[in-house]
């Protein structure tokens, strides 16, 4: 039986014991304040009955906070073998924690973790956006995603049209789910402190998700539209139908990508699908 009677050692002691000095190449910045970690988990909403996935647990601070929630089970995926050793010590105290030593970029989370599932993670800075794009393609598989990003990335995810931060990741995220910047985390909260502040984004996938064909079409459309964002849409979308496509969708050809709402991009996507099917 797991030994849950012994108090857990402080996270700084775990870091020292397992030589968990943050590795810049892995984008590691650890959160150690138990109160802050508890607030992060609270921001994820009610986890009762959910199987939670954590990416890059490091010394296990967020993992401890997740285990203190009503989550049914926590699966932690860690690439760094030092952190795997550290988190294994925590796993010895509970039967609600599974550790996977592997690369999150290659992991098929729905195949590894049973539904209903959610993701709660302080993401490595160097792969955070790439992971989000991957998970957005599987949005229907998750009840929610509560993810820590650099503040600039979080701002882009939640940005409104006609703002400098609004771009492809804004459209895709907001089309597939409800997004909210739940918390602003100063750089000083991390060990070691990064050069920029961070923010916690909560994304709740919409009940009705697009088909794979619709998703791939929206990905092509937004890549073209924002790939040359200084151009008018009739120019940036020339390869997809240009002015004729835009006029069919009821969108002025001289507009630029950052002025279109998510709903307008969806209209444009359906128009493009209809043109290609004709």
Walk me through what this model shows.
With 278 residues, the chain is α/β, with parallel strands linked by helices. It folds into 2 domains: 11-205, Rossmann fold; 212-277, rRNA adenine dimethylase, C-terminal domain (Helicase, Ruva Protein, domain 3, Orthogonal Bundle), CATH 1.10.8.100. 39% of the residues lie in helices and 18% in strands. The protein has helices spanning 11-17, 34-43, 61-67, 81-91, 109-112, 128-136, 151-158, 168-176, 212-227, 233-236, 242-248, 262-277, and strands at residues 30-31, 51-55, 73-78, 97-101, 117-122, 144-150, 177-185, 190-191, 198-205. Strands 4-3-2-5-6-9-7 form a 7-stranded mixed sheet, sandwiched between helices. The longest helix has 16 residues, at 212-227. The chain starts with 10 loop residues before the first helix and ends with a helix.
Q: What's the topology here?
A:
Layout: H1 11-17, E1 30-31, H2 34-43, E2 51-55, H3 61-67, E3 73-78, H4 81-91, E4 97-101, H5 109-112, E5 117-122, H6 128-136, E6 144-150, H7 151-158, H8 168-176, E7 177-185, E8 190-191, E9 198-205, H9 212-227, H10 233-236, H11 242-248, H12 262-277
Parallel strand pairs: 2-3, 2-5, 3-4, 5-6
Antiparallel strand pairs: 1-8, 6-9, 7-9
Helix pairs in contact: 2-3, 8-12, 9-12
Can you give keywords for this protein?
alpha/beta; Rossmann fold; 7-stranded mixed sheet
- Count of folded domains: 2
Q: CATH fold name of the largest domain, please?
A: Rossmann fold
User: Can you say what the CATH homologous superfamily of the largest domain is?
Assistant: Vaccinia Virus protein VP39
Uncertain residue ranges: 1-5
Measured by DSSP, the beta-strand proportion falls in 15-25%
**Roughly what percent helix?**
25-40%
Shape: elongated
Q: Return the CATH architecture of the largest domain.
A: 3-Layer(aba) Sandwich
- The total of helices stands at 12
Please provide the ordered H/E string of secondary-structure elements: HEHEHEHEHEHEHHEEEHHHH
**Radius of gyration based on Cα positions:** 21 Å
Q: Tell me the strand order in the biggest sheet.
A: 4-3-2-5-6-9-7
Total number of strands: 9
* Helix vs. strand class: alpha/beta
Give the class-level CATH name of the largest domain: Alpha Beta
Largest sheet, strands/sense/barrel = 7 strands, mixed
Distance between the termini: 64 Å
Average pLDDT rating: 93
